[in-house]
């Protein structure tokens, strides 16, 4: 813990409301071992970022103010550059001074690295999972069972395939992985409206159901305020407090920053929680601080 650094971060973010990068989302590779129905950004360049490029981005964004790092892909566990592996990036980022490092993975590789937090994408059970991700779910479940040293959360991106399985999924997680909670994202039409996008009515119905599940004690991580903001669409976005860097360039918020028609349907719930944090809504603050 570095209390002064946390204090400076909170002061700039909450009180001064400075628009500087706080979060760096670094896409360290576009290689992925899966071919998921909703994803069109993997395996285009089929290239890892080099260790030296990664170090340059980490240092540049640290000097611009970023203190939280999200390592993403492709699949980050596939990344390597000669003898360097994912763990080496995490250790480098800790040395540079990043306060929290999160890894976003599909969970198909043993969760052996040591970030502060790991998000595993899992958007359904058995057949639903296989329909979306093209593989059986068992390997991912086994890797989660074995990762008892890790702080983990699950990301369930709601779409027209899996929207009917949410309660069943939450019950499964509640009984099989009592330490875990689920963050619900919503399918975002990054590449234009497609068959996975829920209608506004469908989305609002699903959100009501997720809120009910949360009130019943099922492991929903989204705050109720965050879910309601997604339903109403009334929150500030896009934001320039997090930046995404990949092999094509650097983007505030996400690669769709200049596409208001996409932002209108944004389902990136973490962004909503951050937007509410900034407006000092106590509900999400309390939940996020307790969890991380
Ligand atoms: S609000 Fe941000 S994360 Fe959502 S689609 Fe727009 S640019 Fe991307």
Report on this structure.
This protein has 11 helices and 10 strands. It is of the alpha/beta class and 292 residues long. It has a single domain (20-291), classed as Aldolase class I (TIM Barrel), CATH 3.20.20.70. An 8-stranded mixed sheet has the order 8-7-6-5-2-1-9-10, covered by helices on one side. A hairpin with a 2-residue loop joins strand 9 and strand 10 (249-252). The model has no long low-confidence stretch (mean pLDDT 92). Residues 188, 237-238, 253-254, 256-257, 262-263, 266, 268, 271 line the site of iron/sulfur cluster.
> Uncertain regions: pLDDT < 50 for 5+ in a row?
none
Mean pLDDT: 92
Strand fraction equals: 15-25%
Main sheet makeup: 8 strands, mixed
Kindly report how far apart the N and C termini lie.
13 Å
Tell me the number of strands: 10
**What's the SSE pattern?**
HEHEEEHEEHHEHEHHEEHHH
Hetero groups bound?
Answer: iron/sulfur cluster
Radius of gyration: 18 Å
CATH superfamily placement: Aldolase class I
User: In CATH's first tier, which class applies?
Assistant: Alpha Beta
Total tally of structural domains: 1
């Amino acid at each position: 813990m570095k209390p002064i650094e946390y204090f400076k971060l909170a002061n700039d973010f909450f009180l001064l409301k400075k628009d500087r990068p706080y979060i760096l989302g670094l896409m360290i590779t576009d290689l992925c071992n899966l071919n998921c129905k909703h994803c069109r950004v993997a395996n285009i360049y089929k290239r890892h970022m080099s260790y030296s490029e990664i170090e340059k981005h980490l240092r540049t964004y640290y000097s611009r103010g970023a203190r939280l790092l999200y390592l993403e892909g492709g699949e980050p566990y596939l990344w390597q550059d000669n003898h360097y592996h994912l763990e080496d990036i995490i250790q480098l980022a800790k040395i540079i001074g990043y306060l929290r490092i999160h890894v976003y993975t599909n969970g198909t590789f043993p969760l052996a690295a040591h970030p502060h937090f790991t998000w595993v994408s899992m958007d359904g059970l058995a057949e639903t999972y296989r329909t979306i991700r093209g593989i059986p779910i068992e390997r991912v479940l086994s890797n989660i069972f074995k990762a008892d040293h890790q702080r983990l959360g699950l990301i369930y991106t709601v779409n027209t395939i899996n929207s009917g399985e949410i309660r069943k999924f939450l019950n499964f997680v509640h009984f099989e992985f009592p330490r875990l909670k689920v963050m619900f994202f919503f399918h975002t039409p990054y590449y234009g409206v497609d068959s996975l996008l829920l209608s506004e009515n469908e989305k609002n119905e699903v959100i009501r159901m997720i809120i009910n599940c949360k009130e019943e004690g099922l492991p929903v991580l989204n705050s109720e305020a965050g879910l309601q903001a997604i339903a109403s669409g009334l929150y500030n976005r896009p934001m320039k407090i997090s930046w995404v860097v990949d092999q094509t360039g650097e983007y505030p918020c996400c690669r769709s920053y200049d596409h208001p028609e996409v932002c209108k349907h944004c389902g990136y719930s973490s962004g909503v929680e951050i937007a509410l944090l900034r407006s000092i809504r106590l509900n999400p603050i309390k939940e996020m601080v307790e969890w991380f």
